[in-house]
Design goal:
alpha+beta, three-stranded antiparallel beta sheet, 11% strand
């Protein structure tokens, strides 16, 4: 934080105000002028960025996780990761179902796109591979928005939570697949 106006409360207020403006920009779609979108830093020239492709990259075989790439017509991609479910099934959700809903949509419409992925498929259940697949796409959309606006995702989500280092820990692979440290690296 650089000044007294950069308190966590002020950063959150600024984020919420900008999120409301962004929501208005998304809802207005092509009717929105560049001048109306200008209060959201860097958005005026990017408000019409569209998703052109959604790609999956499996890890550790069919039962492993999936890396998700959301590609935009601005030539920039966002990346996310799905884990905790059946990799082949998550890939099928993303490429077989979600991709057709996402392609051509506004890349900044993260919440409406999440709702679309979830509610178009809610009859398949609220958890499991579907939820894992949605989470990977959601992270990729946030990453894409951050890259397009040239700001870290934490700023889009309301600001820095802590200062200093975060301790690393072993989670996947250490006990579940009994991999050595060298294999994990």
């Amino acid at each position: 934080m650089n000044s007294s106006s950069d308190t966590p409360l002020n950063l959150r207020r600024t984020f919420l105000k900008n999120a409301a403006l962004l929501g208005t920009a998304i809802a207005a779609g092509p009717r929105l002028s560049a001048q109306a979108a200008a209060p959201v830093a860097g958005l005026s020239d990017k408000a019409d960025v569209k998703i052109t492709d959604v790609r999956c990259y499996p890890t550790r075989g069919a039962r492993g996780g999936i890396f998700v790439e959301v590609v935009s017509d601005a030539g920039i991609s966002g990346w996310g990761e799905c884990s905790g479910g059946d990799g082949a099934l998550m890939k099928q959700f993303i490429e077989g179902r979600f991709k057709r809903h996402l392609t051509g949509q506004n890349a900044f419409a993260i919440r409406p796109l999440w709702d679309l992925m979830y509610f178009e498929n809610h009859d398949l259940g609220p958890s499991g591979a579907q939820a894992c697949a949605i989470s990977g796409v959601d992270v990729a959309l946030w990453d894409l928005s951050g890259r397009l606006l040239k700001v870290p995702i934490y700023k889009l989500l309301g600001g820095k939570y802590r200062n200093g280092a975060v301790k690393a820990y072993g989670s996947i692979g250490v006990s579940r697949w009994s991999m050595s440290i060298d294999e994990l690296v």
